[in-house]
Write a structure and sequence with these properties.
- The two termini are 42 Å apart.
- The chain has helices at 11-16, 21-37, 63-68, 86-96, 99-108, 120-125, 153-168, 191-207, 225-234, 237-257, 284-300, 304-321, 344-349, 361-372, 383-401, 421-438, 441-457, 477-493, 501-512, 516-524, 532-545, and strands at 58-60, 76-81, 110-115, 133-137, 143-148, 269-270, 278-279, 282-283, 322-323, 328-329, 332-333, 358-360, 405-409, 414-418, 459-460, 465-466.
- The chain has 3 domains: 11-168, 3-Layer(aba) Sandwich (Glutaredoxin); 180-208 and 420-546, no CATH class; 210-376, Glycosyltransferase (Alpha/alpha barrel), CATH 1.50.10.10.
- The protein has 546 residues and is an alpha+beta fold.
- Helix content is 51%, strand content 10%.
- The longest helix has 21 residues, at 237-257.
- The radius of gyration is 23 Å and the shape is globular.
């Protein structure tokens, strides 16, 4: 299965809808690449730390760069990348280093490099579905074509020629078919809509269980801790038993196919329905969520396997991703398709994949949320001091820097890139939970500052929700759904709430309570289940508010 559009389409449907020969060519190119590379589409490209050495004359993405090069009669090649991904290097070394490729790009395109971890606003704006993610823009910056994955030199060059030739004569590949109906928020608060939405998610999960190979859906496979924990917490009776059964079965497969039995830790996901072709990045937030889920399942059905895997995964987080020097959890360990196939002796002689020397605010916040919800204290890992140290790392930014930043570079000790609504929203719920759990005044102080910042810089008094100024809530509804949910949860969790907090939460719930139509679309056509990360926090808000 190859993703070539934000809304996947088959080869036949592309042709029947009148798409150009170029589109057919791209499908064939992607299919042929799959044979050689297993078509990694949620991985990477020439990443931030090495693209300066690329023969492609890349411009680093910024608003100023995009403004400067608009309407210059050349198509724009946007390349989304991430530092942690193995397949970034594949694209760089197998495609972009080819002379005929980089010469063609440099002559006929404006080439813009985008670090997806740093510029997450651009990632959302262009509705990227992984890395490497390629977007071709017309000179007026309308989207000509986009796809996710790696193409090798011959195929990529043929695609480039098709783009350049069509743009030169004014052909546009996209019409109106990908437009989404504008969301209409309800005028009144309706509890019935919330109950319907909750039941729709729970039923939709049960309808999409892959009983043959385990997990959800028939596309790529991974574990989704957030929705799994929600279902275990709030479902009851026979339905709860069904959820526990499929979650247990999926964990068995994940431990078999996505777990590193030597060093601990889960890989990001598997490319196929059968849990084959793992993508070997190890992410702090995913692994923290796996510890929380394994602990919850072990509480229901005690097993030495669940306990052992949870302990080993927590050990991985502490030993590999926690920096004793900086007192904080790192965000990622890079992938390496060779290293993780080695046995213990082979790894001792080899070199482990590097841990990325950046701490991303959103990733660290998600990691801490999972770790703070653990039932156990895990004194053998000295877990609580490490959680507290990481919280202090973030609170120092909020209180002393008086600004929210997106990431911290551990190499130079500097915070960089202004934070987005996502960073802010996740920080608010982190410090609301921390203030409640640890009763420390500086966590409450950080929360107060964050709430004030949110109201001053992100609150839309007309919509009565929080809006990222770089995004359109009509186009990016589900992103705003999740971020507003985290903010609403922080208002509800705040140990010292303000009188207006309840009304503010009520308005957020009202605004998003009609998202059932969008959720239903996902449940009917779901190749992956990452969309549940947007809906689960909102359903938690609705339950807590009621």
């Amino acid at each position: 299965m190859v993703k070539i559009l934000s809304k996947p389409k088959t080869q036949d449907s592309l042709i029947s809808k009148g798409k150009s020969w170029f589109c057919f060519l791209l499908v064939q190119a992607l299919k042929s690449t799959l044979v050689f590379s297993m078509m990694v589409f949620l991985c990477s490209d020439a990443s931030a730390y090495d693209h300066q050495h690329s023969k492609v004359k890349f411009l680093d993405y910024s608003a100023a760069v995009m403004k400067e090069h608009k309407n210059q009669k050349k198509p724009i090649f946007l390349l989304f990348s991430a530092e942690w991904c193995h397949w970034c290097k594949v694209l760089q070394n197998k495609t972009l280093k080819e002379k005929r490729v980089y010469e063609y790009l440099n002559q006929h395109f404006v080439n813009v490099f985008i670090d997806a971890d740093i510029h997450n606003g651009a990632y959302l704006k262009y509705k990227a579905t992984g890395v490497p993610f390629t977007v071709f823009l017309n000179p007026n910056y309308s989207v000509y074509f986009k796809y996710s994955g790696v193409l090798y030199a011959d195929d990529f060059l043929e695609v480039l020629r098709g783009v350049q030739e069509n743009v030169a004569i004014g052909k546009n590949l996209y019409g109106d078919e990908d437009l989404v109906e504008v969301y209409q928020p309800p005028e009144e608060f309706g509890e019935e809509r919330l109950e319907t939405l909750d039941q729709m998610l729970r039923d939709g999960v049960l309808d999409n269980i892959d009983w043959k190979y385990a997990g959800l859906g028939q596309g790529e496979k991974t574990i989704h801790p957030l929705v799994s924990l929600y279902l275990l917490e709030y479902s009851k009776g026979e339905e709860r038993e069904q959820h526990l059964e499929w979650i247990t079965s999926a964990l068995d497969q994940a431990i078999e196919q996505l777990y590193d039995p030597i060093e601990g830790g889960f890989y990001r996901y598997a490319e196929t329905r059968e849990w084959q072709v793992p993508h070997f990045e190890k992410m702090a937030d995913l692994n923290a969520g796996m510890v929380a889920l394994l602990e919850a399942v072990n509480h229901e059905n005690p097993s030495p396997k669940w306990k052992k895997t949870a302990d080993q995964t927590l050990g991985y987080l502490i030993q590999t991703l926690y920096s004793q020097e900086s007192g904080v959890f790192h965000s990622f360990q890079e992938a390496d398709t060779f290293y993780y196939f080695l046995n213990r002796e082979g790894r001792e002689e080899g070199k482990a994949p590097p841990v990325i020397q950046r701490v991303f605010t959103d990733r660290l916040s998600r990691t801490l949320l999972h770790l703070m919800e653990l039932r156990g204290t895990y004194p053998e890992f000295e877990l609580e001091p490490k959680i507290r140290s990481s919280l202090d790392f973030l609170s120092n930014m909020v209180i002393r820097k008086k600004q929210v930043f997106h990431f911290h570079d551990l190499n130079n000790g500097q915070w960089a890139t202004p934070g987005s609504l996502e960073d802010l929203a996740l920080l608010t719920i982190v410090f609301a939970e921390a203030a409640k759990k640890y009763k420390q005044p500086h966590y409450l102080h950080a929360l107060k500052k964050l709430h004030r910042h949110a109201l001053e810089h992100y609150y839309d008094p007309k919509r009565k929700i929080f809006v990222d100024p770089n995004l359109n809530p009509d186009d990016d509804l589900e992103f705003h759904l999740e971020m507003n949910a985290w903010l609403a949860l922080s208002f509800l969790t705040n140990p010292k709430p303000k009188p207006d907090d309840q009304n503010r939460v009520r308005e957020i719930i009202r605004y998003f309570s009609a998202v059932g139509v969008r959720l239903e679309d996902h449940l009917w056509d779901s190749q992956d289940w990452y969309f549940t990360d947007h809906y689960t926090p909102f359903l938690k808000v609705a339950r807590n508010f009621r």
